[in-house]
Design goal:
Number of strands of chain B: 9
Helix content of chain B: 40-55%
Helix content of chain A: 25-40%
Radius of gyration of chain A: 27 Å
Distance between the termini of chain B: 100 Å
Structural class of chain A: alpha/beta
Order of helices and strands of chain B: HHHEEEEHEEEHEHEHHHHHHHHHHH
Number of helices of chain A: 25
Largest interface: A-B, 46 and 40 residues
Oligomer: heterodimer
Radius of gyration of chain B: 30 Å
Largest sheet of chain A: 9 strands, antiparallel
Distance between the termini of chain A: 66 Å
Strand content of chain B: 5-15%
Chain lengths: ~800, ~450
């Protein structure tokens, strides 16, 4: 049997010691319930026609909750019939009430398309006659009116809702008058900045629904995260029932964690993850095991695909046994690949995480993950793509030489424990909130007694009136500007001053957008900007006009900007001082300078040289978490000042990665800095040694000897204006972060330091790893707080 | 930091001592009007004269006085209404409102292609135009001025409704609704606008929905002058905006007119700072828009008079119309003929085209255009002989006969008259002038085959 032989061969890998974990996830019998009696005949018929004679327990639970008028979120893995959880109650209600309408929200157009096909299938099977349509940027204009007025189920995405539906709600009057259900799929994707925006979009939507006299029930579906109920509650600002027990049956599954062996312990270099993934995938494919391989970027997909196609001895003219897949493929192509997988025509697919989400592609026998996908939730999604009702399946996670990958691969217990990833949103971030208040004022005037968000609405409206955007008339504030506020608010980031990246070899066509705060680091002059796996050299950055002119190149190096970030503490929110550490979080004023960049060769991570950048300083208000070590403890460690600072730099480097793991955010959502607790000086490591600078921006040269005081502190700040709530979370997990950082650094196989733990040795110095370990060991003991100081 | 301070920090509204250049840069990028330090004025004089009880105090002019209207109160609030009356000899450019005597249902239905306008009656028509707070549409755009015009006997009355503040919108919309269907002896059945179908009417619908009122415009048929005007005059006057047509067609140049783009900010200045100086221009502008429309309608009707003798079942070609006093030019006649064709009035089209050909001073290229159109019409009418004659005339007399003439002739000769040799000769002649034309090559081949088969 294919899978069994493959597993046997993988055992030999295990014997070599590169498999850090081999876990058998036992099978799970299904938990079923009878199809509800009160379901209309057409729907029971449709279920039977699709081979469904019983419901899974979670589907039945969802149905009951829907009937009881509750909001719910279903949290079960892929291929567990999640969509039926919301389709069934909706279709039932629409069949019985000829006026009722529903809105389905998906984070992308592609997903909406997939579900459209699914819904049409159900409606046909039930012999019903509803209009079900997608409404997005691609909808032709002559269709739009018909859909607005007649479609019973409208599938759309948050951006469309925000710019095209809500601000034009009188045109959608007949939808809003009869809107009863809103389905929010992939709830877990609405976190961070995106989720904060969406919460406000829902606030506006509920205002409008209320105007038309409708009350709404929310049915949501989420991937496995630690706090789906909490996320749902914060996003919707309503009570919500969490349905988490998965009733779908599952055969047993083997889960392997594979760490490619070290080839250079000095530099901490390992064999490549792509090579290992290829080897493992071939192992499965040669045994005719249907396999899905995930790669972290499109270029890696292409590389892997090429390897695999070559090695499978393809006969020319024969249909390929392995195909590639990525987002941006047309629905037709996606359907074809999905069908080929289901029918067994296709043996393997190499994909980006685009195939993580979406409709059921049948059950594959194996999945291989070339690199840690970036979150535990995504990892489970990708693992979950392999899994059958009967017969074993297998998944292999292959680690790359990056801190997060290494941490996960060395901590399978961490991974398997309850998911640490919490999804956070901060809908009252002032900039986000005010932008949506403007949009809301455009949609409906604000009355004196209304509330919107957690800040004083009146005061915000008074401020907007001073700016000439709203005008108080009688007892309401009305929108009083020619501008159309929704146009200048993007749901994917905070500020609306995005840079556009233009390809000069393609008629200056825009190939990407970069948000304002990332621009100096990603698209400075001479930067190598990576886009869709291709490299582009930035020939010129027109900062004032927010444009970067690039040209495709093939370089053997990448660039990394050097950021000097300093800050001033504006306000402390909370502080905890123990014998071991003094941790705090609060509001800060950040100053970021971009003096230059490094050129780093791929794979060897050699530093090829430096370049200068001339860009304006960025200043922003945000929030930060920080901690230092009490003087008496620090001096007891027998380390020189130089070593201590390098140790802190190494700790900050590692901790930033672990923080993104914890927060389920991107690396660029956080920034790090090491400096004095008084914020009088900040440290930067470089080839020429340690550099010290001040936050105020003057080009002072301070040296270790001339530092006014010495209380080294690690700062981890939210890299978005106004902060997004990360700092507070990190502060709450302070002891855990310390412990995990110690874990990461101590378990790293390198000798003196590497990009997977404290950072490249030629920057952070040869003493950094050792110092970091000494410091971490000293402060990581569990301890009870001796004194707690709250800020304010 | 207090909320207020945080807002000021975020939006670059700083107290003295901050980096001015930074602030200005920030403001420059912002898409909103600049922040000023002037507080919202408390003393805008919008009071009703009836409330001015102190005889010794010199009150500043109130808005309704300034705008030349009066306060109107209804059960929901108050608004300013400005009325004017114009006799039928009131002039606009080279014309007067008397042009409207030409207007009748048949012409209107023909111009618009809308059968619901077949009974169009000027006495039951309401001309209207709105001024709005922006062009973006959506729930946040409102109409602050609705200008209307209608005939009372032979006079034309304009009634403009002005919104003094947002809280008066319910009253404002009610007043407009009352005008349309509130009076017992007057019942409007038609709306006339310029570009109103795509802009003004949907906007008004939105406002009624937002105020939870029934939209009074729903039962009315709507004549939007934009499309007929484009059909008739785009060839001659490329820019068919209302102002351009006023200038180029009617010979009317407005003096001191406000730029449309400045209208919303004029209204906002009034709302925010109480400045109503600019509003008079807005009112005047709107009224002029309303006044131009009936004349425009009249002129459009003129264009579709020719070629018709409504009382006769078959059209009769009318003799040449003296050019000097007609605003209608031959180019317009051609456009009108094409309009007739689109409406299915082929006989009338042919008749009008013949009429144009009777002119003595048309240019060669224009004549060719007219004849080609006539050929197409004759073919559709089944009058192949006549069509063929015109084709042959063009081919014989033109220095460079148009390809289409050859094509039509060939088709008629081949399919209707079955004179293949003649057809082929023409195709070959055409090929000399237009080599590498796929259609001709195909035709030639087919004809050669037919001849070969005998």
């Amino acid at each position: 049997m294919g899978i069994e032989s493959s597993l046997a061969r993988l055992r030999s890998l295990q014997r070599r010691g590169d498999v850090t974990a081999w876990i058998e996830i036992p099978n799970q019998p299904g938990s079923f319930q009878e199809i509800p009696q009160d379901l209309p005949a057409e729907l029971t018929q449709a279920l039977k026609a699709r081979g469904i004679t019983r419901l899974y327990s979670h589907q039945a639970e969802a149905y009951q909750a829907g009937q009881a008028g509750k909001n719910f979120v279903v949290v079960t893995p892929t291929a567990s019939g999640k969509t039926l959880c919301y389709n069934l109650p909706v279709l039932r209600s629409l069949a019985e009430n000829p006026e009722t309408r529903a809105l389905y929200l998906f984070p992308t157009k592609a997903l909406a398309q997939d579900q459209l096909a699914e819904l049409h299938g159900w409606i046909r099977a039930a012999g019903l006659d509803f209009g079900v349509e997608t409404y997005d940027g691609d909808t032709p204009s002559d269709m739009r009116r018909k859909i607005r007025e007649g479609a019973r189920i409208i599938l759309t995405n948050p951006d469309m809702l925000h710019t095209a539906v809500l601000p034009h709600h009188p045109k959608w009057a007949s939808l809003f008058r009869n809107l009863r259900y809103i389905i929010v799929d992939e709830l877990h994707t609405y976190r961070g900045v995106f989720g904060s925006h969406l919460c406000n979009v829902f606030r506006r939507l509920k205002r409008i629904a209320q105007f038309y006299g409708s009350s709404i029930q929310f049915f949501c579906a989420s991937a496995t995260i630690a706090n789906p109920g909490e996320l749902g509650r914060k996003l919707l600002e309503e009570d919500i029932e969490t349905i988490q027990k998965n009733g779908a049956p599952r055969a047993s599954k083997e889960l392997l964690f594979y760490n490619p062996p070290l080839v250079n312990p000095e530099l901490g270099l390992r064999r490549s993850a792509i090579g290992a993934a290829r080897f493992i995938t071939e192992l499965f494919l040669k045994e005719k095991v249907q396999t899905l391989t995930f790669a972290s970027s499109r270029v890696n997909v292409e590389v892997l695909l090429r390897y695999l196609q070559n090695s499978l001895n393809k006969i020319p003219g024969e249909r390929p046994a392995v195909r590639g897949y990525r987002g941006g493929y047309l629905p037709k192509t996606r359907r074809e690949i999905e069908r080929q997988l289901r029918d067994g025509e296709l043996l393997g697919v190499v994909s980006t995480n685009a195939l993580e989400l979406g409709i059921d592609i049948g059950s594959l026998e194996a999945s291989v993950l070339a690199g840690y996908p970036g979150s535990i939730a995504s990892t489970w999604q990708q693992i979950g793509r392999a899994g059958r009702r009967k017969g074993r399946s297998a998944s292999v996670l292959v680690a790359r030489n990056l801190p997060l990958d290494q941490f996960i691969i060395n901590h399978p217990d961490y991974f398997l424990g309850r998911s640490p990833e919490h999804a956070f949103i901060h809908p009252d971030n002032l900039q986000i909130l005010v932008n949506h208040i403007k949009c809301a004022a455009f949609e409906l005037p604000f009355s004196e007694t209304e509330k919107f968000g957690g800040e004083d609405l009146r005061e915000i409206l008074d401020f907007l009136q001073e700016q000439g955007m709203v005008c108080k008339s009688g007892d309401s504030w009305h929108w009083s500007s020619e501008a159309y506020p929704a146009d200048s608010v993007s749901l994917r980031n905070i500020a609306d001053e995005n840079f556009v990246v233009l390809n000069t070899e393609d008629g200056n066509r825009a190939i990407a957008e970069v948000d304002f705060s990332s621009a100096p680091e990603l698209i400075h002059d001479e930067a190598i900007y990576m886009c869709e796996g291709r490299q582009f050299h930035v020939d010129r950055l027109d900062y004032a006009r927010r444009k970067a002119y690039v040209r495709e190149v093939k370089a053997d190096y990448y660039t990394e900007a050097i950021t000097y970030s300093g800050l001033r503490i504006l306000r402390s929110e909370a502080r905890e001082k123990t014998r071991l550490t003094d941790s705090e979080h609060g509001e800060v004023h950040l100053v970021k300078k971009f003096p230059g960049y490094k050129k780093i060769r791929f794979y060897t991570t050699e530093n090829l040289g430096y370049g200068k950048i001339a860009l304006p300083v960025h200043e922003l208000h945000s929030t930060s978490y920080w901690f230092s070590v009490p003087e008496d403890l620090l001096s007891s460690l027998a380390l020189g000042r130089d070593e201590i600072v390098r140790g802190f730099l190494g700790i900050a480097y590692a901790m930033q990665y672990l923080a993104t793991l914890l927060l389920m955010c991107d690396l660029s959502d956080l920034g790090r800095s090491v400096g004095d607790r008084s914020t009088e000086w900040f440290a930067q490591a470089g080839r020429e040694g340690l550099g010290f600078y001040s936050a105020a921006g003057e080009n002072e040269t301070m040296t270790l000897a001339t530092l006014p005081q010495f209380e080294p502190t690690v700062f981890l700040y939210d890299n978005v204006p106004g902060g997004i709530g990360f700092s507070e979370q990190l502060y709450g997990h302070h002891t855990r972060l310390i412990r995990e950082t110690l874990d990461l650094v101590s378990k790293c196989g390198c000798k003196l330091g590497c990009p997977s733990c404290v950072g490249p040795v030629d920057e952070v110095g040869r003493s950094a790893k050792r110092s970091a370990l000494v410091i971490l060991r000293a402060i990581a003991h569990s301890d009870l707080p001796t004194r707690q100081i709250s800020g304010g | 930091m207090s909320l207020k301070e945080r807002l000021h920090q975020l939006y670059g509204v700083e107290s003295a001592g901050s980096d001015l250049r930074q602030r200005l840069e920030k403001l420059q990028r912002s898409s909103h009007p600049p922040a000023t330090s002037a507080p919202f004025p408390a003393s805008i004089d919008r009071t009703d004269p009836a409330d001015r009880t102190d005889p010794s105090y010199e009150y500043p002019p109130t808005i309704e006085q300034f705008l030349g209207g009066c306060w109107k109160k209804n059960r929901y609030g108050r608004l300013v209404v400005i009325e004017r009356n114009y006799p039928d000899f009131h002039g606009i450019g080279n014309y007067t409102l008397e042009e409207t005597y030409r207007v009748d249902g048949r012409k209107v239905a023909l111009l618009s292609g809308d059968p619901s306008l077949a009974d169009f009656d000027l006495q039951q028509a309401l001309f209207f135009d709105t001024e709005t707070t922006g062009l973006a549409g959506g729930a946040g755009t409102c109409a602050f001025l609705i200008g209307t015009g209608f005939f009372v006997g032979s006079d034309f009355r304009t009634v403009q409704f002005f919104l003094p503040d947002f809280e008066s919108e319910h009253a404002f919309l009610t007043e407009f609704a009352d005008l349309i269907c509130g009076s017992a002896d007057r019942c409007f059945r038609y709306l006339v606008s310029f570009n109103g179908k795509s802009f003004d009417a949907p906007l008004i619908e939105n406002r009624y929905i937002l105020q939870r009122l029934e939209n009074p415009c729903t039962g009315l048929s709507h004549l939007d002058l934009l499309h007929p005007c484009r059909s008739l005059w785009k060839n001659r006057i490329q820019d068919c905006s209302l102002q351009s047509l006023e200038r180029n067609l009617m010979g009317h140049v407005r003096v001191g007119d406000i730029l449309s783009a400045l209208i919303p900010s004029t209204y906002f200045n009034f709302l925010h700072w109480g400045e109503f100086g600019g509003l008079r221009q807005v009112i005047d502008h709107n009224r002029e828009d309303v006044l131009s429309m009936p004349v425009l309608l009249g002129l459009a009707c003129r264009c579709v008079e020719e070629g018709f003798r409504p009382e006769e079942p078959e059209p009769v070609a009318v003799g040449p119309i003296p050019k000097s006093d007609s605003p209608i030019e031959d180019l317009d006649r051609l456009s009108a003929a094409r309009l007739y064709v689109r409406r299915g009035c082929l006989h009338q089209a042919a008749s009008l085209l013949q009429l144009i050909l009777q002119s003595d001073d048309i240019s060669e290229s224009f004549r060719v255009d007219v004849v080609l159109e006539l050929i197409r019409v004759r073919r559709r009418l089944g009058e192949y002989q006549a069509a063929l004659k015109f084709c042959e005339e063009l081919i014989a007399t033109c220095a460079a006969p148009p390809l289409e003439a050859f094509q039509h002739a060939a088709k008629i000769l081949e399919h209707r008259e079955r004179r293949f040799e003649h057809a082929l000769r023409l195709v070959l002649q055409a090929t000399e002038l237009y080599p590498d034309t796929e259609d001709l090559q195909r035709r030639q081949k087919r004809l050669e085959n037919r001849l070969a088969r005998g």
